[in-house]
Amino acid sequence: MKRIGTFLLLLPRNICVVILRIYRAVISPLYGDVCRYYPSCSHYTLHAIQQHGVIRGVFLGTLRIARCHPWAAGGVDDVPQPARARYTTTRFGFVIANGHGKG
Amino acid sequence: MDINALIAGIGNLLWPLKWLIEAILVTFHTGLTFLGMDPAAGLTWVLSIVGLVLVVRAALIPIFVRQIKSQRRMLEVAPQIKKIQDKYKGKKDQYSREAMSRETMELYKRTGTNPLSSCLPLLIQMPIFFSLFSTLNGAQTGHAGVGLLNKALSTEFGQSSLFNIAPLHESITTANGNGVVIAIAITMVVLMTASQFITQLQIMSKNQSPEMKASPTYRQQRIMLYILPFVFLFSGINFPLGVMFYWLTTNIWTMVQQFIVIRNMPTPGSEAALAREARLDRKRQRRNLGAPATETAGGSFAIVEDVKPVSTQRQQPVGKTRAKKSGTKK
């Protein structure tokens, strides 16, 4: 039961992960590396959604895209760490419940 | 959901941009009419769209120039970049690549030489594209625009057709067997694909350093190059002719701009840079016959070091940056 609950809870962000994955595989290469930051905006948004969920993730991603313009200094800019890491991510990027039940 | 309602909805959000686009469009239309063209003709409206592209792309030139400038300044930090690259030489695993990207980005930030333009120049075209789409869409149904495109003009725009046979608001899907619309649309898809293809190919085959060519991104880009025509075909089918004209013109602009840049300011270490060196050498030789020609730099990223003797000679812009480069080198 709890497992199903977690699955449903994580479903929205996993859907976003798939969308961003497809974007990064299909659309990004069309215009190559242009981002002035590391990680790139889409990569950043992917991390943000994985770690913070859809709402905060999209918000963080939007702020980042707004920060990324030709006059920005650029550089390394990582997603702020969440207060505590509750989930693990698979190699593909799916967010799953923490296997060790640390909570 | 009603697609027209959706388009109108997003169109409302973009009204400042739509206003501006309409203003440019109408200005060109008025100008062309003043020059004696038929105000209701499709060709007049197509040329107005071309004018719109010229204005938009010209407005984006400063961003482009800025990018080129910082690319040139990259020559100054080339030794430091090479140091980072040497550090991670042969390490192909994900973590090393990531660490390398991080260090490179830090270096760009520290020295203010970030050569990347961010996605804003691309992103800004999207609402413009969409605004044009919704303007055409609205015009087709006789809706007035939000600004200078009044009801009369809007109706005229919506009803105009190229050579009196291919309505600008039609797309392949709505053409209803109108052969001319389909023929024009397909021709444009082909031209668009060709121009995009050439642009990509130019960048990839000529303007990338050997290091970039070895990266996984490059391989990914190569694959995309061949998928691209299908993407265009799919989207090209659904866009009205008027919007396609915008797209085609902007693609051609990109192609020409790219050509000029690759020819005159190539990425250091790329094939194009070598070609430019060779060209300049030939020119110098022709100018002062008998003067000893500088040896053409042989391959690789080492071009910066190889050409150094040149900078001690009497050469202007290139020599200057290189002289500066060797000055900062410790």
Automatic annotation (TrEMBL), chain A:
Pfam families, alphabetized: YidD
One cellular component term from this protein's GO annotations in UniProt: plasma membrane
InterPro entries hit by this protein: Membr_insert_effic_factor_YidD
Top-level taxon in the UniProt lineage: Bacteria
Membrane topology note: Peripheral membrane protein
Subcellular location: Cell membrane
Residue ranges the record marks as coiled coil: none
Swiss-Prot/TrEMBL keywords: Cell membrane, Membrane
Primary localisation category: membrane
Membrane listed as a keyword: yes
Family (UniProt): Belongs to the UPF0161 family.
Function summary: Could be involved in insertion of integral membrane proteins into the membrane.
Protein name per its UniProtKB record: Putative membrane protein insertion efficiency factor
Natural source organism: Galbitalea soli
Gene this protein is translated from: yidD
Automatic annotation (TrEMBL), chain B:
Taxonomic placement: Bacteria, Bacillati, Actinomycetota, Actinomycetes, Micrococcales
GO biological process: protein insertion into membrane; protein transport
Protein function: Required for the insertion and/or proper folding and/or complex formation of integral membrane proteins into the membrane. Involved in integration of membrane proteins that insert both dependently and independently of the Sec translocase complex, as well as at least some lipoproteins. Aids folding of multispanning membrane proteins.
Record-level GO cellular component terms: plasma membrane
Region (Disordered): 283-330
Subcellular location, principal: membrane
Quaternary organization: Interacts with the Sec translocase complex via SecD. Specifically interacts with transmembrane segments of nascent integral membrane proteins during membrane integration.
Organism of this sequence: Galbitalea soli
Membrane topology note: Multi-pass membrane protein
Localization: Cell membrane; Membrane
Key words of the record: Cell membrane, Chaperone, Membrane, Protein transport, Transmembrane, Transmembrane helix, Transport
Sequence ranges assigned to domain Membrane insertase YidC/Oxa/ALB C-terminal in this UniProt record: 45-262
Protein name (record): Membrane protein insertase YidC
Biased composition regions of type Basic residues, renumbered to the chain: 321-330
